[in-house]
Specification:
Radius of gyration: 43 Å
Strand order of the largest sheet: 1-3-2-6-5-4
CATH topology of the largest domain: Ribosomal Protein L25, Chain P
Order of helices and strands: EHEEHEEEEEEEEEE
Number of strands: 13
CATH superfamily of the largest domain: Ribosomal Protein L25, Chain P
Strand content: 35-45%
Shape: elongated
Number of helices: 2
Length: 234
């Protein structure tokens, strides 16, 4: 992989006001992180950085930073992009984090997947599902692949491509399980069957009323009233 050069200048002053001024001057603030040493705050033009990342290497570009401080000899550091912060509305780059590396030590990066062809299954109404848009690998900085091409033209409905089915260059260690599905073609979703009419309620069955026997009336006991007549004694 080609090593790209990016000229930058050291930022002596930091803070929101300073950063705002840097962006107003069409420059991007950034920080370089190095193992065992203090981070370096830098800045560079938007156009220069745009040129660097819009190459075949993309965001996996290996960059040779040439950092000037206004006094003394410029400092050079070999770096890769750690993170790009963008404005959520305009998507314009606001801040960059770099990670200093050694060209003789392997690093972990994510390589984009590039789909080639049209899957056979999609012509029959199937749905192409890309599960992994990137494959994480470990290799020397100069051996970072630009992309991984995957030909899906032979995929029918129900077929899939696993990591183990792909071809990788020598010297590149794959950090994802070989059984992982990368791309698959699924059958189209079945249309929902309209709900049937609700079953009509069965007519109420009116059964014959059960005849109840008339209750026998027991004869009332005769009550004899004894009236005592008080005779007037003359």
């Amino acid at each position: 992989m080609e090593i790209l050069t990016l000229k930058a200048s050291r930022r002596e002053q930091i803070g929101r006001r300073q950063v705002k001024k840097i962006r107003a001057d069409k420059q991007i603030p950034a920080v370089v992180y190095s193992k065992g040493t203090e981070a370096i705050s830098i800045q560079f033009t938007y156009d220069d950085f745009h040129r660097v990342i819009h190459t075949k290497a993309g965001e996996n570009a290996v960059i040779q930073l040439v950092i000037s401080s206004g006094t003394g000899k410029p400092v050079e550091k070999t770096v890769v992009i750690k993170e790009i912060q963008q404005d959520p509305v305009t998507e314009k780059m606001k801040h960059i984090d770099f990670k200093a590396i050694s060209l003789t030590e392997k690093i972990e990066v994510k390589v984009p997947l590039h789909v080639i062809g049209e899957a056979m299954g999609t012509k029959k109404g199937g749905i192409l599902d890309v599960i992994h848009y990137e494959i994480e690998v470990k290799c020397l900085p100069t051996n970072i692949p630009e992309k991984f091409d995957v030909d899906v033209s032979g995929l029918d409905i129900g077929n899939s491509i696993h990591v183990k089915d792909m071809t990788f260059p020598s010297g590149v260690e794959i950090l994802i399980d070989s059984e992982e599905v990368v791309i698959a073609v699924h059958a189209p979703k079945a249309e929902e069957v309209p709900a049937g009419e609700e079953a009509k309620a069965e007519p109420e069955v009116i059964g014959k009323e059960k005849k109840e026997g008339e209750a026998e009336i027991a004869p009332e006991a005769e009550k004899s009233e004894k009236s005592e007549k008080a005779e007037k004694k003359e």
